Write a sequence for this structure.
C-alpha cells in the first residue's frame, strides 16, 4: 500500500473514532460542554526554550512583552503549566499526540541525519482537527524528523513552512511542504521570524471563512540568535531583544485576527516548549534549565485567550501539562479522542475557564530515555526526583513545592511515606516504558559535530 493511500485510510479510521461515541481514556468527569456555534479556530504559538519569568506578565523586570501580556489580561494565565519532557523533540510529541513521548518512541532530541521521527501511526492534533473539518497549517520549528515521511504534511497539516530542527543544527534548512527552499544561516536567518508571521497572516486571511488550526512554532529565543538590525539595542543582551522581537512579530498576527473579526471565534495559546537553554533565560528563582526535570526546566509560561469563553484576567495555579492540550482542544472542537490507545492527558478546559470540575487522576511523570526522572503528585504539592537524564540518583529527592518552589530543601528523609507512594507511581509508569537503545548513525555533514550541532 502506498504512503498516500495508507494516510487516507488512516484518516478515515480516525474520523470514525472522533465522530463516534467512544469515551476518552483521559477525559475528566463534570466538564461543561464546548461552546455552541462555530468551531473555534485554534492558534498555538510556541517559543523555543523560553524561561518562566521571561514574559512581562510573569514578572520579568527587563523584558517588555505587551502582546503576550495582553493575552493574559484578556484570558487566562497558568502559573503551574508544565512541558512533558525536558528537551525539544519529545516535548513537541506530547503536545501534538496527547501522550507520553516514549509511547511514540521519541525520548531525546532528534538530530539531523537521524533515521527516526514521529511515527505514521501516531494521531496528531492536526489530524484530529482536520477530520473535524479544520484547515491546518504548521509554521516554524518542527523537530520531529527531517525525512519526508516525518514532515508535518504527513501528519495532518495541509501545509508547512519552517525548519526541521533547531537553528543551531546543520544543515539548517527552510522547507515549504516537503521541498527545501533555502539553507541558513546567512542574511535570511535574521528574517525567519518575520517571514513566518507574514505566512501566518496570509494563512488566517485565506481561511477566515472556515475553522483553522495554525501551529506557529517560533525558532527563538533558542540560540544562536540572529535578529534584524532594527531589532537590536546597543549594549543589551540579544536574548532580551529576541523575546521582545518575538512579541512584536506575534502581535502582527493577533492584529490580523482582530482586523478580520476572528478574535471571538479563536482560541490563542502562547507558551514554551522547554525551560531556558541560554544563560540569559530567567526562570524566576526556579531550579533547573532545559534538560532537567526540576521546575526551571519544565515549568513555563502559558497564556490563552478566547473571548467570552475564557474569563478575562483569570489566573490558575492548578497543575496542567502539555499532553492535556490534545483532549482539551479536540473536545473544544466538538470531537472525542480516539479510543484505541492510551492517552496520558486530561481535558483541562475547566482549568482554563474556571467552570466545571477538574480532578487529576494520576501523578505527572517525566521520563528521559527509559529512565523515570521525576513524579509530581496530582494536587501539585510533592515532587519526587529519581534521576536526571539517563542517570539515576543514589537517593531520591523530595520537595514540597507549596513551601519550596525553588526545590532547595530536600525533605525525603522526613517524609518517607510520600517517597514510598510516589516511587510506587514511578514504578507503574516504568512498566510501560520500553528499553531505549541509543541510536548511532553516521554524520553526513562536515559542518556539524556528532550531536548535530553546527560547528561554525
Amino acid at each position: 500500500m502506498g504512503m498516500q493511500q495508507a494516510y487516507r485510510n488512516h484518516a478515515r479510521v480516525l474520523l470514525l473514532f472522533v465522530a463516534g461515541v467512544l469515551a476518552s481514556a483521559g477525559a475528566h468527569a463534570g466538564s461543561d460542554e464546548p461552546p455552541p456555534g462555530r468551531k473555534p479556530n485554534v492558534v498555538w504559538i510556541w517559543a523555543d526554550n523560553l524561561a518562566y519569568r521571561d514574559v512581562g506578565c510573569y514578572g520579568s523586570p527587563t523584558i517588555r512583552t505587551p502582546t503576550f501580556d495582553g493575552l493574559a489580561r484578556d484570558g487566562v494565565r497558568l502559573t503551574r503549566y508544565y512541558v512533558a519532557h525536558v528537551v525539544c523533540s519529545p516535548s513537541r510529541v506530547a503536545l501534538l499526540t496527547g501522550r507520553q513521548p516514549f509511547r511514540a518512541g521519541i525520548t531525546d532530541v532528534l538530530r539531523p541525519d537521524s533515521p527516526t521521527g514521529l511515527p505514521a501511526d501516531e494521531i496528531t492534533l492536526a489530524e484530529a482537527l482536520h477530520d473535524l473539518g479544520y484547515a491546518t497549517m504548521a509554521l516554524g520549528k518542527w523537530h520531529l524528523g527531517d525525512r519526508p515521511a516525518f514532515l508535518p504534511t504527513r501528519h495532518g497539516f495541509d501545509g508547512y513552512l519552517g525548519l526541521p530542527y533547531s537553528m543551531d543544527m546543520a544543515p539548517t534548512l527552510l522547507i515549504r511542504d516537503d521541498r527545501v527552499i533555502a539553507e541558513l544561516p546567512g542574511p535570511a536567518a535574521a528574517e525567519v521570524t518575520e517571514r513566518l508571521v507574514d505566512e501566518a497572516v496570509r494563512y488566517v486571511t485565506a481561511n477566515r471563512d472556515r475553522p483553522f488550526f495554525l501551529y506557529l512554532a517560533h525558532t527563538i529565543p533558542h540560540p544562536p540568535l540572529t535578529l534584524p538590525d532594527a531589532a537590536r539595542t546597543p549594549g543589551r543582551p540579544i536574548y532580551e531583544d529576541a523575546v521582545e522581537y518575538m512579541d512584536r512579530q506575534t502581535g502582527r498576527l493577533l492584529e490580523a485576527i482582530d482586523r478580520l473579526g476572528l478574535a471571538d471565534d479563536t482560541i490563542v495559546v502562547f507558551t514554551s516548549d522547554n525551560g531556558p537553554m541560554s544563560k540569559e533565560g530567567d526562570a524566576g528563582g526556579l531550579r533547573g534549565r532545559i534538560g532537567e526535570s526540576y521546575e526551571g526546566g519544565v515549568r513555563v509560561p502559558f497564556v490563552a485567550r478566547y473571548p467570552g469563553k475564557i474569563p478575562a484576567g483569570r489566573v490558575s495555579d492548578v497543575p496542567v501539562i502539555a499532553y492535556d492540550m490534545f483532549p482539551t482542544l479536540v473536545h473544544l472542537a466538538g470531537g472525542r479522542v480516539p479510543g484505541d490507545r492510551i492517552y496520558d492527558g486530561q481535558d483541562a478546559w475547566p482549568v482554563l475557564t474556571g467552570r466545571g470540575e477538574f480532578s487529576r487522576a494520576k501523578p505527572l511523570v517525566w521520563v528521559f530515555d527509559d529512565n523515570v526522572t521525576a513524579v509530581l503528585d496530582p494536587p501539585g504539592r510533592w515532587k519526587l526526583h529519581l534521576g536526571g537524564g539517563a542517570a539515576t540518583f543514589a537517593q531520591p529527592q523530595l520537595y514540597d513545592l507549596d513551601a519550596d518552589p525553588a526545590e532547595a530543601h530536600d525533605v525525603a528523609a522526613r517524609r518517607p511515606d510520600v517517597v514510598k507512594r510516589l516511587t510506587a507511581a514511578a514504578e507503574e509508569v516504568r512498566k510501560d516504558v520500553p528499553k531505549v537503545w541509543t541510536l548511532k548513525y553516521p554524520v553526513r555533514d562536515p559542518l556539524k559535530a556528532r550531536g548535530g550541532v553546527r560547528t561554525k
In short: The first helix runs from residue 3 to 19. Residues 78 and 316 are 5 Å apart (CA to CA). DSSP finds ten helices and 16 strands in the chain. Residues 1-32 have pLDDT under 50 and may be disordered.
